[in-house]
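thread: overnight batch results

M.L. [08:02]
morning all. the overnight job finished for the chain we discussed friday. pasting input first so we're all looking at the same thing
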Amino acid sequence: MKKFTEVKELVASLEADADKFYNKGNSAAGTRVRKGMQDLKNLAQAIRLEVQEAKNKEAK
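M.L. [08:03]
and the structure it wrote out:
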């Protein structure tokens, strides 16, 4: 559950930069959003693997 909380915190932290990029045209903020989204992707993959591992342990 810790990683899921990290996902929520990461999305919340990106909100300001997303606003700066989309509404104010700040390209540096766009770069930060892209990096954050890559981090989000990696974190989501880690959660997927963790869930799959837990499911496999239950099935044994």
